[in-house]
Specification:
Blueprint lengths: L1 H30 L9 H17 L3 H19 L11 H4 L3 H26 L6 H14 L22 H22 L5 H4 L1 H13 L15 E6 L4 H4 L2 H16 L7 E3 L13 H11 L4 E9 L2 E9 L5 E6 L13 H5 L22 E3 L5 E6 L6 H4 L8 E6 L9 H16 L3 E5 L5 E3 L5 E4 L6 E6 L8 H5 L2 H22 L1
Parallel strand pairs: 1-2, 2-3, 7-8, 8-9
Antiparallel strand pairs: 1-12, 3-4, 4-5, 6-7, 9-10, 10-11
Length: 504
Amino acid sequence: MADTQSSEGRRGWRAVPFRIAAGGALLGSMAGLGHPPFDLWWATLLAFAAVFYLLHEVQRGRESAWLGLGFGTGYFAMSLHWIVEPFFVDPLRHGWMAPFAIVFMAVGLALFWMAAFWGAKRLHPSGWPVVLTLTVAELARAYVLTGFPWGMPSYVLVDRMAGQGAAFVGPHGLNLLLFAVGLALGLSLAAKRGRRLLAPFGLAGAVALAGPMPTPEPIATDDRPVVRLVQPNAPQHQKWDPEHTGVFFERLVRASAAGEVRPDLIVWPETAVPVLLNYAEETLQIINRSAAGVPVVLGINRFEGLRIHNAAILLDGQGAVAATYDKHHLVPFGEYIPLGNLLSRVGIAGFASQNGEGFSSGPGPALMDLGALGKALMLICYEAVFPQDVFGAPARPDFILHLTNDAWFGSFSGPFQHLAQARMRAIESGLPVLRAANTGVSAVIDAQGRVLDALPLNTEGYLDAALPKPLALTLYARTGDWLCFAVVVLLICVAALTMRRNSD
């Protein structure tokens, strides 16, 4: 009889964490709906309010950890489901990896949130410090092992007036704000009467977050340089196929030559040229003739010794390479294998970028002098995900120039999420962003993160637009993430000391 009761107890113990994690996963999936293409920002807020209420109700740190793991797994599985798309470019060879990729990515990132929920419950029985610990978890996700901050909760506010707060506190400060409003709403549902007083604050915060951005005014083109963004629309499974590369190159050349009124700059997307820069002299002359003396910024791969770089070059009006930028923030396991060069020292040379196995990183953020247009901060694809890459430049640029190939990300969510993050970089820095994407979305973004003009996804064409003006240097551009980090850590220390004092 005792053995039977013991067995039932063990089954019950296993069932409770499973139910908690499953409930958290459902709420996490709801929270992920705030990101494109769904853009249901309010679903994210309500999901955080509900999970914070559940965190208040669970009794033990172990249960809070399961709640955080489930919630994070659901959130990242929903918001990052595009991660399977690269594996279906060549489905016969790589398609089997897709389920493993989404599972390992979602659960791996959810471990940050698991630690945050567990730590919050340890700091206070109500779990209210979760707004602090979860903010720290997102900071860690942005930096640990080169970082992967794609899909931060605060990005759901990019179309809200509250999103302009990124100019002052950055995306992590906005995370703190979003979590605080969710906590006020969640704890207002708790049984104790005192916590119901939080309801007005939660509702006021929700109303503040709901305010939309005003429609931008058209930019006068008479006194601003005009930039042409070219979008060839080369699907990834055809992009490097010898039977199609000539077609896509011809699209780029034709768009560069089009129109009687010439722009001041032409921009091609990432890896637009199907020839290595080392052997591209004839190709560059074709590009120069099509541009008819207009400078061209374009993406191209190049070798330097055994190393290969994902680069952007400036082709001046005479067809000479006037400047080169090498992408420095590479995609782990996509463009290089972490620790590959270190492994080569012990005889495992197949992953070493120094031997040409994968890409090598450039020296760091850099400006490209574009003459009358000013100096542009170059970002290639993945680099637009990182605020710290924008502020690592040697001086403040006049605008951000983003070359990307989002054909890897499919056509449902990934390209639109990448665009949203580029918009957030504009808000944080007070700088306009010009974005040339292979399959889209190519866009002109003003210094408040508003899309002034764009080419639709999966279309061929070009866009001529006036370069928007920058705004004044923002507070976030001065402080980076240090201000938010310092404030949050200080508050966590205060919460820990208060908890210890109350327990004595």
